[in-house]
Design goal:
six-stranded antiparallel sheet
Length: 125
C-alpha cells in the first residue's frame, strides 16, 4: 500500500514547511503496512498530529509505534519508545510525547503499527 502525503497546513509555527501523511495501521505487524518516505523538511521527527482508534465504538485511545527502514530490502526497526498510548483526536506536535521516531533522515521509509488493526494516524514529518 502507498501512503497519502500532503503539504501540512501548519497547526503551529514549527510545522511550517513540514509534510503531513495519513496512515492506517495493519495492527501489530508490518505485513500490509502503508509505507511512506520521510520528507526533506524542517521536521526531523515523526510526530503524530491526529489519531483515531478503529472499530470499537467506545475506543477512546490506542497504542502506536513508529517503524522505519533504510530500504525495502532491509528489516523494519521499531522506534525506541515502543508503543505510545494516545487518546483519539488532535495532538500538539511540539510536545515530544507525540514523537514516535526522532531524528529520522530524509528518504527513510516509515510506517506506523498499532495495538488494533485499522487505527489511523496523521504523521507530520
Amino acid at each position: 500500500m502507498t501512503a497519502v502525503s500532503l503539504v501540512a497546513l501548519a497547526p503551529t509555527a514549527s510545522a511550517s514547511g513540514c509534510v503531513s501523511t495519513w496512515l492506517r495501521s495493519p495492527g501489530t505487524t508490518t505485513n500490509g503496512a502503508m509505507v511512506a518516505v520521510k520528507a526533506d523538511s524542517p521536521c526531523h521527527d515523526l510526530n503524530v498530529s491526529w489519531s483515531q482508534a478503529a472499530y470499537a465504538p467506545d475506543a477512546k485511545y490506542s497504542g502506536y509505534m513508529g517503524m522505519y527502514r533504510k530500504s525495502s530490502s532491509t528489516g523494519w526497526i521499531g522506534g525506541s519508545r515502543g508503543y505510545v498510548q494516545m487518546d483519539n483526536g488532535y495532538h500538539d506536535i511540539n510536545n515530544s510525547y507525540f514523537a514516535l521516531v526522532t531524528d529520522l533522515t530524509p528518504g527513510t521509509q516509515f510506517t506506523v503499527i498499532s495495538r488494533t488493526p485499522g487505527d489511523q494516524v496523521t504523521i507530520v514529518h
